[in-house]
Write a structure and sequence with these properties.
Blueprint lengths: L3 H30 L2 E4 L5 E5 L6 E5 L7 H7 L3 E5 L9 E7 L2 H6 L2 E4 L2 E5 L15 H17 L1 H5 L11 E15 L7 E12 L2 E11 L14 E4 L4 H6 L2 H9 L3 E5 L14
Parallel strand pairs: 1-6
Antiparallel strand pairs: 2-3, 4-5, 5-7, 8-9, 8-12, 9-10, 10-11
């Protein structure tokens, strides 16, 4: 005869086994079988570049989730946007999402709002004239040019006109010309240009070159994107150098692409800049 204790033990075992099976079924349902709705355009992030009337935009997913499967799916998200050039405030963007459909099916994801419309807003306007800009902003632009040269000395000294080796150093850099370049084409941004007279020395040998620093993406936001600043060697003629006719050189080099408006050199740092 089976004892009550044996029956009780078996009952407890069966109940425990049943609860374990139910738990496994629930886990399988919630993590593997349950259909999960994902809104793939809810947290989309838009990154504009350019000004009102001539901007473009890039879309990136702002979705993040601690669930490994959901995050794996989010990592496949990309977007296309129409239109995506010559954008103005008030334009309507049509955003279409793209994702790994096989992965969505495998993980039982139901995709909500794969397409979205967004109205463009907040684009800064172009600046018509250097006269519209604050003196403090113009000073910051010139300081950013000076700072660019300070962090690109090796690049400046590597030009054939100097032909200096590792011992070369910049002993003076002076901003001699400053202008606003207003682009005549939608393909180029408005920018500032600074022409520097640079004296360099190696083992007592001194040479002088002229080097240009350009600060692009200038508009009424008055933001300076340091990562976009770049430099170019100025190939001035001996006549232009001797007469300090810097404006003629800039006109010759950029006049076909830009309307050039000369500005004042405000920098107080441009008398001497010794290399560190």
């Amino acid at each position: 005869m089976i004892s009550k204790e044996t029956i009780k033990s078996k009952a407890i075992y069966l109940v425990s086994l049943l609860l374990m099976c139910v738990g496994l079924i629930l886990v399988a349902y919630f993590f593997f079988l349950r259909t999960i709705e994902l809104d793939v355009t809810k947290n989309i992030r838009l990154y504009y570049s350019g000004e009102n009337g001539r901007a473009s935009v890039e879309a990136k997913s702002g979705e993040e989730d601690l669930n490994q499967r959901i995050q794996e799916f989010y990592d496949t998200l990309t977007y296309t946007i129409e239109p995506n050039e010559a954008l103005s405030n008030g334009d309507v963007l049509h955003i279409q999402s793209h994702y790994d459909e096989a992965l969505a099916q495998q993980y039982h994801f139901q995709i909500a709002n794969p397409d979205k419309e967004v109205i463009v807003e907040g684009l800064p306007n172009r600046i018509d004239s250097i006269q519209e800009m604050n003196r403090s902003f113009l000073l910051k632009v010139q300081e950013s040019m000076d700072s660019y040269l300070g962090s690109h000395k090796k690049e400046v000294l590597s030009y054939d006109a100097l032909n200096f080796e590792s011992n070369g150093s910049i002993v003076e850099q002076k901003l001699v010309y400053f202008a606003f370049l207003k682009s005549n084409s939608i393909d180029n941004s408005d920018k500032f240009i600074g022409l520097f007279q640079i004296k360099a020395n190696e083992d007592g040998e001194e040479k002088t070159i002229y080097y240009m620093v350009l600060v692009p993406d200038i508009n009424e936001s008055e933001q300076i994107l340091a990562r976009n600043i770049y430099g170019e060697k100025a190939y001035m003629s001996e006549t232009e150098q001797a007469s300090a006719d810097y404006g003629s050189y800039i006109e010759r080099a950029y006049g076909s692409q830009y309307t050039i408006e000369e500005g004042s050199v405000h920098m107080e740092l441009n008398s001497e800049r010794m290399s560190q």
